[in-house]
Structures are given as C-alpha cells and as structure tokens.
Amino acid sequence: MIVLDLGADRYARLGDVEAAVLRHLFGGQGKHSTPAPPSLEASLDRLVEEGILTTDAVTGREAFPELPGQVMLDLKGYPHDGIPKIRMGHIVNCACAFVCAKFMRHFHSIERTVLRVKSRRERALANAGRPKSKKEGRLPEVDLARIRELVEIFRILKGLFYTGKGRCLFDSLTLIEFLAIYRIYPLWVFGVQMGPFVAHCWVQDDRFIYNDSADSTGSFKPIMSV
Asked: Looking at the domain assignment, is residue 10 inside a domain?
C-alpha cells in the first residue's frame, strides 16, 4: 500500500500493520470486513501522527477518491502534413509556462503547486456553470483538433527551454501551465508501479493522454489526479 505525502514530497510504502489497519477501516467500502489487527489503537495513533489519517472532518478527504479510468488513446501525431503553424504568441506563452513551472518547482512545495492546479481547475468548472460533483461536473468541451494542435506546438517548442527525458513532473506541470493560458484544464495524474517501485505522472483528459503513451502509463496505478 503506497501513499503520496505531498507535504514531505515523498512516496512511502506502509508497513504490514499500517496496511492492515487501513484495510480494517475501509475494506468493503467502509465496512469493517477484515479482522482488527493487533495494537489497533496504537497503530491508529501512529497513522494520525504521520498525517496519513486525520481526526479533523473539515480537512479530511475521502479515503479512496474517484480516480480516472485507464485511457487507451494517445494524443500524438499531428493529423495534417508538415507541422502546425507556430506564431510568436505560442513561443511567448510556452516561455511563460516554462518560467512559471520553473518558479514553482524552485520556490513552491509540491503540495502548494498541486493545490494551485487543483483550485484553478475547480474554479474553471464552477465558472462553466456545471455541477461540481465528480461524476456530473465536466469542463466545457474543447475542440479536439485545437487541443491536438496546441499539444503538438508545445512538444515542438519545449525543446527550446528544456529536455523532457526523465522529467515527467516538470514536463507535465509546464504543459498544464501552457494549456491553462488557452483555458484548457486537463487532469494531472500521478501513478506508481511496484517491482521495482517507480513513480510517474502525466497529463490526460477523459479520452486521451497528452504527453505520454497509453502503453507507458498503462503499467502504472493512478493514486491521485487533480
């Protein structure tokens, strides 16, 4: 059982006892369907101290939030001959996205950065006049051709500012900032895989993965999306 501690910017594997406690508390959709592990109260206190559990109903969140399903389509390959028309505004916006992402990575914690991205998307959802429910709320549909063009432009221009190899977090954040300039707010998804442990993140919507492939992300289990 893996947890992502945004405050400490680290992934942690829970021990067998802690994992058993969480299964006992949340197994079977909230029903105590597994036997209580030994030293239950002491284990609960330790999980509260580590910030994995909380006794504050205001700051607490769902134990198992709804996560996006596996996307089987890649948003790659520009459909027209040649490359999209790149204007000066695209270059300026890509530079602004790069500077913004660089600033946040150097001066903001990952927790503050994630909350900023999450809050902006929620505001856009609210301003769209749609329900805020996770199941019913949806951002306005954006023309797929426009998204594909902007993602392709970003893929071409980002080489002027950085190399994306081995920098999935920075690449995803920069792409998110670039698309936000055009009022496009996809999901930022964090996932893990075991044996050996590897963490990864990428950008997607309900239909397509923007900056990776379905084959690559398919081996990762999403644990957070904002």
From this structure: yes
